[in-house]
Specification:
Six copies of one chain form a homohexamer.
Chain A lengths: L2 H15 L1 H13 L1 H15 L7 H15 L3 H13 L4 H15 L1 H23 L1
């Protein structure tokens, strides 16, 4: 195991996703433990930990990509939460998704706005407890 | 014609793409003049002219989306030039594309890096004249 | 607000989707009211209201596109209902989806046929009340 | 060989694509002769020869699908020519492509309009000879 | 009806999917009986019945394709079961999906691993009865 | 630099792609040297070097994925050559691509067969020198 990359990736994962990121890793751990490790080491440890873009700018790029893919709403949900964690506002997230209608079409944008609406509603519900 | 949206869109188009944007509009004008107008009015006039994200943040989202689509290299080229025009550095553009390997895969990222390489080489060649 | 485009778009939206279209607009209105307005103004007011293709031909093209995208079943569902509203028969809708197996593959066609089956079953259930 | 399906498919292929369709079949014949046969038998013989949609409606659906895919410009070109052969006008083809900006995004629509422009220019050049 | 192709396709369908494949065919039969027949005749009868690749190699290619599409989890599920039926191990299926992160990105791979996890859990539950 | 992963990845890259792989790495080295290194370390060093699938089985999965993506013909070309290098025959490669018509549609399969035809013709031309 590559401890520097893993430690750095774990820190970046925690900063973006908090304890929810760990939940996904645990779900993968049963079926593909090496892949759970690779996710921490490569996307989080090698790429998302780099300087050159701010964490907020990286989340903008990530949300744009996931809205464009249009087929991974649960991953999009995790990254909308992550974007809020690194300093994006709800309004900015809505702006990014709206803009994606240009490149990825309206169905992708509409579906992604409804995912964002769910995330925001869950956060509001948690706040009320 | 909706003159406010058109004027605002034209200004945004010019700020992002300069005279190159006009070339694409002219090419479309022969075959679909209404569509050329729609592009200026809707994506540029309605969406990309909005506040809520900085021009640089919008170009980051746009490049992320076009790398993810992976099938529009000439549009990506225009938006890499546009990103430079609104304040992204070459290094930042390379970072965005690299990060897209996570969500859209390595072929999309590699092909897009080669598009960026072409854009940068053309700009260097222009500078040397 | 651009009242001509909005009014024209609202009429086209109603003609295609009936009251169901309004439900989607209301859901978007909470999170992105400008985008709800844009959807009425641009896709419905600017594009789908145009002459040059009949409403039925436009729905054929829309269903073909949504089957090909393969990742927006709820939007496809709304447009299958819309196709019936503007004069497509169930048999024609099934034909369009079957034909898409050629370009978009069998998984896209099979999943879309099951969406159509749901739409038709819901309509039959409503008729029986 | 399934002679009924093959004969029916060959007739449909010829009606849509003329001698150009045969060129593609010949190119495939060297490397995958069974696949060239399958294309004539299944998409053309089984599906596109069916009643239930007019040939023009089928080409509308095909163009919508290929614009949405966005990664097969040479196939799109062949089907734009085919659409003209079965009775679509140039204006109708432009309308279909414009409408696809809604579902597949503007890059897909812009690139496809430029493909249509090429097809129309080639036809005009042939006419002038 | 083309009885040789149909019979051969039915045998191949049964070998890969067992009685589950028949369930999908029955669901399609209500809405598009010709298409249910085409699926047995063309993908199963014409293509998947061919020599030139082993059944296991064909399922490897199929799973790779479905993970890459990323928008047909129920079809992927059926083909993971099919891969086990023709001799792939669970470990091999996990390896194929992991490898797809390279070409199709991590969201596609993660979502597909969770589909595989569901399939394996269902099989374990059946074994315990 | 992670020398074990890099060395292992370089060996796997060489075994699959020979000197052509190095050419792509050199092209990326100018614009994104870290990414060139990541490609060797992660896809080749971490994933494609794993046991659990034979090199031939991995190339089958890779070709299936690239045909399905449909937008990276130069990467597909490199992996067709790679498949031949690790023991796939031309006939097997043609079979994989033909099969992809089921999941990714005929345009993707046709375009990929023409890429394979180019690769085979280049190899034949080299042999004649």
């Amino acid at each position: 195991m590559d401890s520097t990359r893993y430690t750095r990736g774990q820190e970046t994962l925690n900063r973006i996703h908090g304890h929810i990121g760990q939940g996904v890793m645990d779900a993968l751990d049963d079926i593909a433990p090496d892949f759970a490790r690779f996710i921490i080491e490569f996307p989080y440890g090698d790429l998302c930990s780099r300087e050159g873009l701010s964490p907020k700018e990286r989340q903008i790029a990530t949300i744009a990509s996931l809205v464009t893919l249009g087929n991974a709403p649960s991953v999009l949900k995790a990254h909308i939460q992550g974007a809020l964690n690194v300093g994006c506002t709800r309004e900015e997230i809505v702006e990014i998704i709206m803009q994606m209608s240009i490149y990825a079409g309206f169905p992708a944008a509409v579906n992604s706005l409804l995912v964002a609406k769910d995330v925001f509603a869950e956060l509001d519900a948690e706040d009320q407890i």
